[in-house]
Amino acid sequence: MNKLELVKQFLITKFRRNFSSIEELQSFQNRKIKKQLSFVMNHSPFYQMFYHDFQKAINNNNLSALPIIDKSIMMNHFDDLNTVGIKKESALKLAIEAERSRDFSPKLGHISIGLSSGTSGNQGVFLVSDKESAMWAGTVLAKLLPGKLFDKQKIAFFLRANNNLYRTTANGRISFTFFDLFDDLPLHIERINKLQPTIIIAPPSMLRKLAEWQMDEKISIRPLKIISVAEVLEEIDRRLIETVFKQTLHQVYQCTEGFLAATCSKGILHINEDLVLVEKEYLDKDKGVFVPIITDFTRKTQPIIRYRLNDLLIERKTSCPCGSPFLALERIDGRCDDLFYGYKNNSKEIGILFPDFIRRAIMLASDLILEYKVTQLTLDLIEIKLKVKANQELVSESVKNELGAIWAHHQLVIPDMHFLPYDLIPSASKRKRIANEMREQFDGKIV
């Protein structure tokens, strides 16, 4: 790891990118985008071909005129899109072997290989150079680290897979300990008690389990900062975790495509607009629900330009008290795959329900609910798993009424609701409390 690059990026992020206005930020982004477009036109065969008829737009730095890509396009053109000549077959072979052996240290030359979880429907591979790893680490530490860079920190990182990218955060004063979510849960108790981490980074399902262990006195830890990653953070989890550990729960929006957002000092999630430009494809502008189209102007090995994610984000309508001009989010609402559907009354037209509608109905139903999962199986059938403190039958009836009211409010035919005991535990798979497992097609799109 290039420690000098890490420190340089830390200082730049911490002290030189404190933009005072949106105009200043936009000017910075335009310069970065112009430089990135010039780079990809010289080094990426895919983008050279893809943008062949858009030279005028590139010359004018008119990003919005360029075509959009997604994961399927990126993976189909992986060999020609990346700028270091790595073949998808070789990258996949190394990444899959790492998953099987649980040894994530091997690289292809100076390039680290990662494998996405495939929750958006197809598995992805990402490439990061040693320099990009150091820059990523410096940026992450600048945005997330409590105190100063050289303060002693012990970081506990709970994830499905380790990667050289994450290892770059370790140095003489900062130790990094990976907790493999494939391991049996009891194995983590002894390790985390012994480590006594100052920072914990984990999916909310694992953070909730840590909070439960803390309440049951199975563990006794006092972290300075807790950061939620990888799964949708829901209010039912946030309240418990913050209450048990007596601190604000922070959040990171990190995916295969980049380090997209992090919480500020006030606990509000902001897009990292010093790293990426986000265009909004609104699904409901009044409610601020949009799908992000991102352009990352820091990644050279595997350039990401006008890349449509599969996530549902909700923008914050009021400015953040921290004063940052970076786009603030109310929350990450889930994935486009998590939208619910229903027949409109007296017709065969299809209406949609956002995941947040389902989430709010559950919260309003009862404060006795400890855990839940709501799954749409068909247009006419919803499966609901509940774990409650007491009065299971009464709570189930209340949930049924609240969900039915949501369908009725949006003039949709109320589906049958089938209740089952809650049987899910934290695991290596991403937890989804709201999921759509339908296989019907609407407008040619499988949902």
UniProtKB/TrEMBL annotation:
Recorded hits in Gene3D superfamilies, A to Z, give: N-terminal domain of ligase-like (3.40.50.12780)
InterPro entries with a match to the protein in the record: ANL_N_sf, CapK_Type1_Caps_Biosynth, CHP02304_F390_synth-rel
Q: Which NCBIfam families match?
A: aden_form_hyp
Q: Which PANTHER family match?
A: CAPSULAR POLYSACCHARIDE BIOSYNTHESIS PROTEIN
Q: What is this protein called?
A: Adenylate cyclase
**What is the native source organism of this protein?**
Metabacillus sediminilitoris
